[in-house]
Amino acid sequence: MKNKTIAIHKGTLRDPKTGGVNTPIYTSSAYDYINKDDTFYPRYFNTPNQDAVAKKIASLEHADAGLVFSSGMGAMSTSILAYAGAGDHVVMLDAL
Question: 39 pLDDT exceeds 60?
Answer without folding.
Answer: no
